[in-house]
Amino acid sequence: MRRAGLGEGVPPGNYGNYGYANSGYSACEEENERLTESLRSKVTAIKSLSIEIGHEVKTQNKLLAEMDSQFDSTTGFLGLCPT
């Protein structure tokens, strides 16, 4: 499949740039690099966010375990009181 605008004006047998005109190939490469960097920054942000969520989940689980223990202690204490 041939892309429109790429490879036009290149003399036959010029395979140094794989048959693409320097300007078209360079523009595609620059756009690819820009999009790759944008994707890289988004992945980094998502990774950081997921790590922060993991820390928050651990903290919340610890607090819930402490509350559960305190409720168990209170239940035991209330069970000893005469009614």
TrEMBL record:
Residues 26-75 form the T-SNARE coiled-coil homology domain. The keyword Ion transport does not apply. SUPFAM superfamilies: SNARE fusion complex. Required for vesicular transport from the ER to the Golgi complex. Functions as a SNARE involved in the docking process of ER-derived vesicles with the cis-Golgi membrane. One of its GO terms (cellular component) is endoplasmic reticulum membrane. GO terms for biological process: protein transport; vesicle-mediated transport. It comes from Aotus nancymaae (Ma's night monkey). Interacts with SNARE complex members GOSR2, SEC22B and STX5. Interacts with LMAN1/ERGIC53. Interacts with STX17. This is BET1 homolog. Keywords: Coiled coil, Endoplasmic reticulum, ER-Golgi transport, Golgi apparatus, Membrane, Phosphoprotein, Protein transport, Transmembrane, Transmembrane helix, Transport. It comes from the Eukaryota. It is found in: Endoplasmic reticulum membrane; Golgi apparatus, cis-Golgi network membrane. The lineage of its organism: Eukaryota, Metazoa, Chordata, Craniata, Vertebrata. PROSITE patterns: T_SNARE. The keyword DNA-binding does not apply. SMART domains: t_SNARE.
